Records
---
Amino acid sequence: MAVKFSGNLTFTFLEYPNFVDRYRAAKNAGYKAVESSCPVDIPVEEVAKARRDADVQQVHINSYGGNIRGLAAIPNREEEFKQSLEISIKYAKALECPRMHVMAGLLPSEADRTDEELMAQWEVTYVKNMKYAAQRLEECGITALVEPITTIPGYFVTHTQQAIDLIKKVDHRNFQLQLDLFHHQRTNGNLTQTLTDVMPYLGYIQVSQVPFRDEPDSGGEINYPFIFQQIAKLGYTGWIGAEYSPRGRTEDGLGWLKPYLVD
C-alpha cells in the first residue's frame, strides 16, 4: 500500500510570490494534491480557478484564524467564531476541499497553563464551538480536524493526548485528529506506537524533520522511510501533508518525494 503526499502552499513554493501560482508549481513538481492556510486575501474565485487550471486536489485547509490563530477556544467570541467559520467554508467549498483544521486560538499572554479554572473555561468554550463546527462542516461534506501545535506560544492545543481528550468530549463523528509528526516528536516522541494508538481518531497527517522543520530527508530525529512504511502497514490511506520549510529552493529539495510518486 503506497503513501501519498500533498504539497503545502503556505510553507513551500514560496519562490512564487503570488499564492495562486503555487498550484501550478506544485503540479509541475509531481504533487497531485495540495494543502494550505485559508487564502482570505485573494478573491475566492481566483483561488478556485488556479486550482482547477493546475488540475490538483485541495485536500486540506486551515480555517481562517486572523492574527490570533483561530477562535474556537476563546470565551465570549462564539459569534465571531461562527462568522469566521463561514468564511473558511466559502473557500473550502470553492476549492472542493474535504478537510479543515479548525484553529483553536491563543491564550492571553499573561495566562498560566497551570490555572485549572482558566483552562477549564477555555476547554468548555472549545468543546461547545467544535460541536457546532463539526456539525456545520458535516453538512458541507467537510471533516473537522484538531491539530496540536508546539511552535506557536500560547496556542491552546499543544499535545496529542489533549487533542484526543477533546475529540472524546466533542463526541462527534465528523471530528478527527490531525497529527503533525514534527509537533508530536518534539513533545512526546515514540512515533511508531503513537501512530498505532491514534489510528481510530486519525483524519490527516503532516510531516517535516526535527529539529529544524525542513525536508523529511534533511537528517534529523525522524527516520521517515521507516515511518512511511509503518503508516502504510497500519492501513492509513489518507493524504500526508508536506508542511515544512525548505532549506533552499523548493524544487531542489524534493528528492525525498520522488520514490513515492505514482502515475
---
Amino acid sequence: MSMKSAPVNDPEGVAPATGGEERRTRASQRTLVWWAFKKHRLALVSAWLLAGMLIVIALCEFVAPFGDRHRDSEYTTAPPQVLKLWDTDGPDGFQWGLHVDGYTSEQDPRSLRITYEPDPADRVEVGLFVKGEEYELFGLIPMDRHLIGPKDMDDPMYLFGTTTDGQDLLSQLVYATRVSASVGIIGVLVAFLLGIVLGAVSGYFGGVTDNAVQRVIELIMSVPSIPLWLGLAAALPPDMGPVARYFIITTILALVAWTGLAREVRGRFLALRSEEFVTSARLDGSSHGRIMFRHMLPSFSSHVIAALSLSIPGMILAETALSWLGMGLRAPAVSWGVQLQDASKWSVLSGAPWLLIPGLCVVLVVLAFNFVGDGLRDAADPYKH
C-alpha cells in the first residue's frame, strides 16, 4: 500500500512565490522600469520614432537627396512628386524601376505666376545609394552617395516639393531636424545640469545656501518665459553668424528652463538627507559631493530621466517659435522655425500647402517626446512596483 506524503504547508501561512513573482522580486529597478515601459504601447512606438529621428540626425547628409545649399531656380514652389515603382503610361509600355514624373509648367497671363504639374511623359529615374553632391559624413569621411536621389543629378526629384527659393523641401527638412532637435536636446541637457547641481546643493545644505538659491529661482520664474526669451533674443546683433547664434539661442533657452527641475530636486534632497543610507555614508567619511551624486541622486534617477524627456518638447517649441518670429535662427541656417516663415504668408501658402510639412514634423516629434515622457513617468512610479 503506497503512502502519499502530505503536502508541506508554509509555516508562515504564505503561498510559495511563482516563477514570475520570484523573477520580479529579484529584478533591478531599471529592469522593472523597462518592463513597465514596454506595456505602454504608444510610448514604445514613440520611442522607436525618436530612435529613427536620431539616426536621421546622425546621417542627415547621407539621408538628404541634396545638400543644404542646393537651389534649383527653375522649379520654385514646385509640388511634391509621387515615387512610383512601375510605369504603364510611358512610351515603352510597362516598365519597372523607381521613378517620378517630371514637371510641366504654365504661366498665368494675368498674375504671371508659374504653376507646375506632373508630366507622365517626362520620366525621372530614381535610385538608392546614388551618386550626388559630395559631403563629409560626421565631418570626417568624404562621401558622395545619398540614400535616395535622381540618377542624373540635373533631373528634378522633389518628393516633398520645393520652397520659394527652389530648395528641396525634403532635404531642408532633414537638415532642419538636426538643428531643431539638437537645440532642444542640448538646451535641456544644459538646463538639467544646472537644475540638478543647484537643486542638490540647495536641498542638501539648506540654510543660507537654500535661501539664496530659492530667491534666484523665484526671481527668474517671476518673469514670463516668452517675453524673457524674446527680449534676450532681440538683444542679439543682426549680423551675428549662424553658428554663434545657434549656441547663443541654445544658452538662452537653457538659462530659463532649469528652475523647475531645481525645485523638484531640492524637494527630493530635503526628504532624503535624513535617511539612514545618507547618515551611513556620512559616518563612512564620504564627501558631500559623493553623498549627493553617488547615493542620493541615483535613488530617483528614473524620475529625472522622465522629466528630461518631458522638457525637450517645450525647448523645441521655444526655438521654433523664436525662429518663426525672426528672433531665433536665421537663414542661411535652417530649422523648423525658419522653414515655417514661408508658410506664414497666405499668398504663398494658398498655392503651396506642402510648405506646412515642417509644422507637421514639429507636432509629431513633440507628441512623441510627450508620450515617451508619460511612459517613463508611469514606469518609474514606485507605487506600481
